[in-house]
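JOB MANIFEST
job_type = single_chain_structure
chain_count = 1
residues = 337
[input]
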Amino acid sequence: MRIGKLDNETLERLVLGRTGAHRDEVIAGAGIGEDCAVLDFGAFDCVLSTDPITASADRVGALAVYISCNDVAAHGTEPVAIMLTVLLPPSVTEDEIAEIARQSDEAARDLGVSIIGGHTEITDSVTRPLISAVALGRAAKQGSKEAPAPNDLIIVTKSLALEGTAILAKKQEGNLRRILTEEELAAAKAMLDRVSVVKEGVAAGKVGMTAMHDITEGGVLGAVWEVCTRGGVGAEIEMARLPFEDVSLEVCAYLGVNPLRLISSGSMLIYIRPDKEAELTAALAEAGVPVTVIGRVTAAADGIVLIGRMGEREVIEPPGPDEVYSAAQNDKTFEAI
């Protein structure tokens, strides 16, 4: 099978119908486009999310913390704790283990999150360090949750393709020196320092949004498709409004990668009523987070559509394997992802 997340059709056919026993405590469980599970814990809800770090071995300890906490923040909830399962190859050194632990500790302290346990193991089942994280947050009871509706604004924070650009810059460093200056290459790799979306997730949760999704594998178009499909609505996304940094576009063009389908941790996708736009923009500006309106919600019958720079309309298809995995396949001289 192809590398990357299972496509949605395969996931539904093979996995999602097999989710164990029904429990009344489960408010939200497994589903396409769901960042989190939510459990009824009495006075509060417990919000949980899990993610592995597989596409990058660089800064894996920090990414494991940031990426899972991003998903909890996509519920509008502040993460409070995290558990880490760390699988290491026999070739690992004590210095490398210590560095992973240092990165995880630093990232957790940055977010105010406690590392409360997990598992660490040397195994020949992996060829490089792999971390799977479970993040937890505590949320007040929300009652009936809002859902996206026609005319809602669709917003993204910061720039798109941050994580994907950083991964490609690290893995394809030698090749990219043909087109990038040392300063540009350093800036691309440093995008990994901007992958947390906890600030914007918590701020948007306080303002009130109709939907929110951390933009990970599948890029911005994959995230839009998942949110709209789950919400039973359509969307119009304007290509000209999508906020990419120049170095991301240069990297993607050279490597033959579609930036619209490239993993974009570091940017949050937010759906919000038009009358709350100013409040959200102000709250995120106070947190130092720029926002861009990239489109609007439409009726389901209108479809999920990307509007090109010349007004052409293209149907947005379901997400497949992320573009980060395609770079190594486009040219045999490239280093393996």
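[summary]
The two ends are 16 Å apart (CA to CA).
DSSP finds eleven helices and 13 strands in the chain.
exit_status = 0
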